[in-house]
Amino acid sequence: MDLLTAFRLRKSWIAKGGGNKSDLSSFIDGFVAQRGWAETQFQTAIEVDGARVDTPTHKVDCFNNGIALEIEWNNKDPFFDSDLNNFRLLFDLRAVSVGIIITRADELQQIFNSLGRGSSYGNSTTHMSKLLPRIQGGGGAGCPLLVFGITKSLYVEDDA
Known about the structure:
Blueprint: H1 2-6, E1 9-10, H2 11-15, H3 23-33, E2 38-40, E3 45-48, E4 51-54, E5 60-64, E6 67-71, H4 78-92, E7 98-104, H5 108-114, H6 128-136, E8 145-150, E9 155-156
Parallel strand pairs: 1-9, 6-7, 7-8
Antiparallel strand pairs: 2-5, 3-4, 5-6
């Protein structure tokens, strides 16, 4: 709740060019890290008749107390499939009780376009209209999901 209250989408985060991790993701990671959340990879395995095969999961961006949080700000939309599948598996293994995805609402495209950054945030990248059909199609299976779409109402103009 504190994260949702404090979060604002800063113009400077949008204006800044690409890189490995966006300032938006770094802000969220840092905010929750101060509260005990950490990037986590679960070490899982399958064993049949004594033959063990390690099957580690892909990393969850932020994890704490059974809650898995993924930040999908501007990745290719198949990342949603990986996140939902990971949530499903970890829920079935009782390692995760709920999966959370933070992405962007489609309406932010207007802001990106007005800042000359529209092509960097294209239709094939992560946003709500790419996520919701996957959820409605059963992508998370039995794992309870909570998804947030960052909207224009959170946008603030800071020094870009």
